[in-house]
Amino acid sequence: MVVAAGSWQAMTLARQSWLFLLMGFLQWILDWLVTVGLSHAGMSLEIANVCGRLIGAMFGFWLNGTFTFSSSRPLGRQQLLRFALAWAALTVISTWGVGYVGRSVGLEAAWLAKPLIEAVLAVISFFISRHWIYR
Questions:
Q1: What's the pTM?
Q2: What sign results for the dihedral spanned by CA atoms 68, 72, 73, 78?
Q3: Considering all CA atoms of the chain, what is the largest pairwise distance in Å, rounded to the nearest integer?
């Protein structure tokens, strides 16, 4: 069976998009649970958010590198460094957004806003992952 290059790329993009959403959902649940749990226990919202994102990121790096953007070569130092840089930048944005909502409207509102903030960042993260981190 001959597959045109454009249709192969579309199949790959569709597969990667679907897997990224699935892996991201698992990662997000872990991130959100840690953030809510730590902030509910009295940790500052910003620090709890960074902790949640860090734990979710470690899980997500492995999931996406192994399943979503898998290639013939194993995950290495270059992918980890790129992932860490992207994660740091997106974490600054996430933490600022969640902290802003928490200070402006309250802790419970920040818990509800976090999924929306993370959804926007997930779109950005997908393209960074696909075109830079795991390539």
A1: 0.78
A2: negative
A3: 59
